[in-house]
Write a structure and sequence with these properties.
The complex is a heterodimer.
Chain A lengths: L1 E3 L7 E5 L2 E5 L5 H6 L7 E2 L6 E2 L12 E4 L2 E5 L10 E3 L13
Parallel strand pairs in A: 2-8
Antiparallel strand pairs in A: 2-3, 4-5, 6-7, 6-8
Chain B lengths: L3 E6 L3 H12 L4 E4 L13 H7 L4 H4 L1 H15 L3 E3 L2 E6 L4 E6 L2 E12 L3 E3 L12 E3 H11 L1 E3 L3 E6 L1 H12 L4 E6 L4 H4 L3 H4 L3 H16 L4 E2 L3 E6 L6 E6 L2 E6 L2 E6 L1 E3 L2 H5 L4 E4 L4 E4 L12 E3 L9 H18 L5 H19 L2 H7 L4 H4 L6 E3 L4 E2 H9 L5 H8 L12 H12 L3 H4 L13 H5 L3
Helix pairs in contact in B: 1-4, 1-11, 5-6, 6-9, 11-12, 15-16, 15-17
The chains are: A mainly beta, B alpha/beta.
């Protein structure tokens, strides 16, 4: 959906749903997703509709993604890091404690 | 650890200018900003662009370069700058809750300056939640900080100077700007403000230059556009609209919307300090005096979050608030404060002179303010304008009861994207003015906190 003006700057690698993806230092995770093949961040918990970043300034919360194991992070406020693992959120978070 | 003299929320032009002056005067200053780098929205990514992509500065224009001076002075100052730090609470007793690096912390300051800036007015149209539909500031931020442009055809739709600025910037960066769809400029209404505007000549000249760039590139422009809708399955594929009695459809992979900007009052409304309805800008703003003082002692406001004035006005207001803080804390006397602040007070007035002209020239479109029933107002909870109207018919008397009935405003964004449009639809349905209808009652935390972050509070 978006292309880089300076593709040679994409020197780091993150994984997006397991897919290795080149990103540039200083990119936010949201920017990196917009430049990927699938620019969506999540499917909504209400209807399952796909959402991609809308405001890119921390106000719309449509860029909520799981970053390095922590869900519901605003991808537009997180800078990429080499080796970062990013996952799209497509269903509600599982309750993992079997005592509950 | 000694207490902070001044805690500043936001590292945009107002926050940076305030921090620089306050630190110079010897105040103990901390600046908290949730972004990883300073500059706010208007100067987003400025340090990166200046060092790594200097050639891109040419595409972004001279006012962006001016921000570099502000950022450099801020970095060189003794202000304690905390990037990637969210302020989730500000209490009346001047205690702040912040979260950084997965840990929440409480801190206190003798004075708090809120400089949270502006956000774009949400633009509820059919299909506005499709991937690829975004606010114009988002596309502009992406160009500034990530050096990215839409890979395919992009259409810009809306009203306001930012639309033209973005179009010119995208063209200069090599993007395929397929059309500009103007939802209408009321030239007649703006004329009474022309003489006021002459005081802000530099901005007007900038605007004329932008129009020339776009005309040279022969970008099709449609005026008085209505019935905008974004079309697509999993992402936007085209935009449909009516102009001059004709329905048209233009293919695009990105659709940038813009209906002006509004004060970001999420923090000030949550405290709360007193707010007033700004009829000319169709948004809420905190009530402040000439020095930025809000209705609670020790809390001040500077920049666009106090009412839209632009980046230069924000820098002036930041410095004015810093001088006021220094006087309030007994560091300088009133005469010194008045002398030092004189140029900024004059500068602020000079920049605000253009505002009524721009506000009258670029009001938000009526369709966007009062969307049809099938248009989604609350993006988070997926509540439509029709559902809000139904809630009013069922007895919803204002935004808070409608919120209880429909869940509008209960999602993660807590009304940032829908408070204005939900209230406008309610006001229209009830036949009451916006000032009377009010807004969602906001509560802390301002941003979601994990249990782990909260548990780290001592």
């Amino acid at each position: 959906m978006f292309r880089r003006l300076h593709p040679q700057a994409a020197t780091l690698t993150i994984t997006l749903d397991g897919v290795p993806t080149k990103v540039a230092p200083g990119d936010t995770v949201a920017a990196a997703v917009l430049a990927a093949a699938d620019p969506s961040c999540r499917a909504t918990p209400v209807s399952g509709a796909r959402r991609a970043p809308f405001c890119l300034m921390g106000a719309c919360f449509d860029c909520l993604m799981e970053i390095d194991g922590v869900p519901q992070r605003q991808a537009c406020l997180v800078e990429v890091r080499d080796g970062m693992q990013v996952r799209r959120q497509t269903r509600p978070a599982p309750v993992t404690d079997e005592r509950l | 650890m000694s207490e902070l003299d001044l805690a500043i929320v936001g590292a945009g032009p107002a926050g940076m200018a305030a921090a620089t002056v306050a630190a110079e005067l010897g105040l103990k200053v901390a600046v908290y900003d949730e972004n990883p780098a300073p500059g706010g929205q208007i100067y987003r990514g400025i340090e990166q662009v200046a060092t790594k992509r200097a050639a891109d500065l040419a595409t972004l224009g001279p006012s962006y370069r001016a921000g570099k001076t502000l950022v450099d002075a801020f970095r060189a100052s003794k202000a304690d700058y905390h990037p990637a730090t969210s302020v989730w609470m500000v209490q009346r007793d001047l205690q702040l809750g912040i979260v950084q690096g997965g840990k929440a912390r409480l801190t206190r300051a003798k004075r708090i300056l809120i400089a949270t800036g502006a956000q774009e007015r949400p633009v509820p149209i059919p299909g506005w939640t499709l991937p690829g539909v975004m606010l114009s500031g988002a596309a502009q931020g992406l160009l500034k900080s990530a050096g990215m442009v839409p890979a395919g055809p992009v259409v810009l739709a809306g009203n306001g100077p930012l639309l033209y600025q973005l179009a010119a910037q995208l063209l200069a960066a090599g993007a395929e700007v397929r059309a500009i769809l103007e939802t209408g400029a009321r030239y007649g209404a703006a004329l009474p403000h022309v003489f006021e505007a002459l005081g802000g000549v530099a901005t007007l000249a900038k605007g004329i230059g932008l129009l020339r760039t776009i005309r040279r590139a022969r970008v099709p422009i449609r005026r008085n556009v209505i019935a905008l809708r974004a079309i697509g399955m999993d992402r936007v594929e085209a935009v449909e609209f009516s102009a001059g009695g004709k329905t048209e459809r233009i293919d695009c992979t990105v659709l940038c919307l813009h209906q002006g900007i509004v004060a970001n009052t999420q923090l000030t409304q949550a405290i709360p300090v007193e707010h007033e309805w700004h009829a000319a800008q169709q948004c809420w703003r905190p009530v402040i005096d000439a020095w930025g003082n809000a209705s609670l002692p020790g809390i001040a406001v500077a920049g666009d979050c106090g009412g839209i004035g632009g980046a230069e006005a924000a820098a002036h207001a930041g410095r004015i608030a810093a001088y006021e803080a220094a006087w309030a804390l007994g560091v300088i006397d009133a005469a010194t404060r008045d002398t030092r602040a004189r140029d900024d007070l004059a500068g602020l007035q000079r920049n605000l002179r253009l505002r009524p002209f721009l506000d009258a020239l670029y009001p938000p479109s009526r369709e966007v303010l009062l969307p049809a029933d099938d248009v989604m107002l609350c993006r988070c909870e997926e509540v439509t304008a029709g559902q809000v109207r139904a809630a009013v018919r069922q007895g919803g008397s204002g935004p808070n009861s409608v919120k209880s009935f429909t869940r509008a405003g209960m999602g993660p964004c807590q009304g940032r994207m829908c408070a204005l449009s939900v209230a406008a639809v309610i006001a229209d349905a009830l036949g009451k003015p916006m000032a009377e209808v009010g807004s969602f009652r906001l509560r802390f935390p301002l941003k979601p906190l994990t249990v782990g972050e909260l548990a780290s509070l001592e």
